[in-house]
Amino acid sequence: MAHQTFGQALGELILQKRRALGLTQTQLAEDAYNTSSKTRRISELESGLVANPHLKTIDPIILALKIAPAEIEECAKRATKQPDSDLDRAYREARNLIDAIARQFEHSKPNASLADLDDFLRGKAAEWSALRNRIASIDVPEAALSKLKDDANIALAEGQFDKVDELLAHAEEHYQNDRTLAEIRKHAAIRVTRGDNCLLGGRPDTALAHYRSAAEFFKPFDEKEMAKLLEDSAHRIYEVAKRSLNPAFHLAIELLKPLLDLDHVKSSARLLAGANYRLGLTMRNYYLSNPQNVGKNTLDKAIFYSRQAANYSGNEDESFDVGSMKVNLANLLLDRAKLENGSETADVTEAISLLQNLRINLRNDKKAQELRSYTCNSLGAALLTSRNIDAPIDTNEALDQALGAFRETLEISELYSDAENWGAAKANIGGVLAEMASTKNLESHKANFLRIRAISEFNSAIETTSVIAYPLHAAALHELLARVLTDHAVAIDNEIGEVYLVRAIQSYEISGSIFNREQHPHRWAQIQERIGSIFAHHARMPNVTSSKEDIAKAITYLEEAAAVFDKIGAKEEAANSREKINLLRN
Questions:
Q1: Which of 72, 337, 369, 461 sits in a 20 to 30 Å window from 419, CA-based?
Q2: What positions does the domain HTH cro/C1-type occupy (predicted)?
């Protein structure tokens, strides 16, 4: 078949072999894995949904069907895309590591698809390959100083002492750069690699110590190199943290803080603004990853650093960077406004002013159009927030302006193929539509259609957000989707509503598997309470034959929620859950 992937070719072979043996997909799953729960994987393979599966992830199926190596080679020859070389090499040279990671993934995500497993293993194989390459490239050649020494000898012979001193000064500088710094770079590279290894191995605090000490090697000789190493290490940790279930943003923060004390950074307004911006941005992500435990103090510090950055005016070539600093400050002000600690009106008003002015300036700046989409997204969020406080703007006007800003974001994001910001705008529009559906005295058919549109927007946002790459963001989107699915099911209150309830439970379960009991107890308990409420509602629906089972499940979920609420001191929420339990039992 033309343009056939390796996965499609292999899927056809598996289907032929299974049918030749007279096995169902369930029987093959039981033969290969000793459990029928893996039937979905066989279905995915036979349907060609996994474009490039690695053979080691499906070894049991190959063995059960007695597929010969020659048959697999034939599939590879037919494919337009060959198996992943990084993953293949990782399986050959680091089999125990990859096997352990695969087992850990399947244990933590038993419902994940084979495509999810393959994507996850490819990412880990790439990390392993990068770490191996760092280790291989630690040693570098040194530069020679012979010409400077020869020139100094000639100048000395001629009595040109000033010339000798000048040449020796150059020799000293070259010696430091080409020998002293070269040796320090080698030493620092080893120490950084140790840090990378500790980070990959789950020892973040030890990794931080290694990164810090590697940077300190340069302090007596070259602050510029020290600053670069701190920035690079912090950026690497930041990018990993954005895609992690256990984000270590605090490590990046600790690496960025020393930059503000370096003369090399303090002597440049641009470098100082950049350091303040990165510190504020990282602190914001640290706060958002776990606001219950991180607290307002971190948010206030992030605003302080971001305000320092936003005061930098820059030049025409820096409009994107300067604008990004203002957007980050505005986002932080909105985060603090949501805490309702007394500064919300001033925070939201300042954020709206910052973003509106920036939006106007960016419309005429061809070099920074992509930033305009982020500006509009943040502006829309600020306008929505303004409706909940005593801000000098009409509520309906704010809603219309917010939708206009989000739609402008979509337009620009589509122009630049910016899937991430496009998805964020879709989620924001979904939230607005869901809120509009709850307007009092709105005709039911109009409210229903608004909720259906909201569901569509949230689903679009979820499609652009991988659970594997951005787990926390994906979990939050599933939680938002589950709420509007539940609202719609309750509103239509018929047999079709049951389908929406099931979908809501599925999205809540995905969210709860990421916002888990150990790391996000409050969020997890809220999700359990909502699932319990869904079962309770279903039990009361007409013509339902599973009322007793639904009530039992509802009580189980509510009891688990109440127990966690008690443990974390959320007394009001615990009492609310127990009140629902009592009503169900009576």
A1: 337
A2: 14-72
Nearest to 472 by CA among 524, 433, 430, 434: 524
| Segment among 91-105, 332-346, 409-423 with least mean pLDDT | 91-105
pLDDT in tens, 439-472: 888 899 999 999 999 999 999 999 998 766 788 8
Non-local CB neighbours of 11 within 8 Å, separated by 6+ positions: 45, 46, 47, 48, 50
For residue 529, what is the enclosing H or E element? helix 521-540
Write down the residue that tokens 């340069």 correspond to. Answer: 218
Number of H helices, E strands in the chain: 29, 0
CA dihedral 475→481→483→488, nearest 10 degrees, is -160
The tokens 């400050």 sit on which residue?
Answer: 329
Q: What is the mean pLDDT of the chain?
A: 86
First-to-final CA distance of the chain: 64
Tell me the C-alpha to C-alpha distance, in Å, between residue 570 and each of 43, 73, 522, 524, 525. Answer: 44, 59, 8, 13, 10
User: Which pLDDT tens digit goes with each residue over 97-119?
Assistant: 677 777 777 777 777 777 777 77
State the DSSP H helix or E strand holding residue 399, giving kind and residue range, or none if neither: helix 395-415
Query: Would you kindly state where each structural domain of the chain is located, as residue ranges?
Result: 6-83
Helix 181-200 vs helix 204-216: angle between axes, to the nearest 10 degrees? 170
pTM confidence score: 0.67
Q: Decide if 524 contacts 290 (C-beta within 8 A).
A: no
Q: Write down the pLDDT at residue 53.
A: 79
Q: With both helix axes pointing from N to C terminus, report the angle between 181-200 and 223-242 in degrees, rounded to the nearest 10.
A: 20
Task: Tell me which residue has tokens 């705008």.
Answer: 425
- Distance, CA of 54 to chain centre: 25
Q: Which two tokens stand for residue 548?
A: 């007793």
Domain 6-83, CATH class in plain words: mainly alpha
Q: Other C-beta atoms within 10 Å of 276: how many?
A: 25
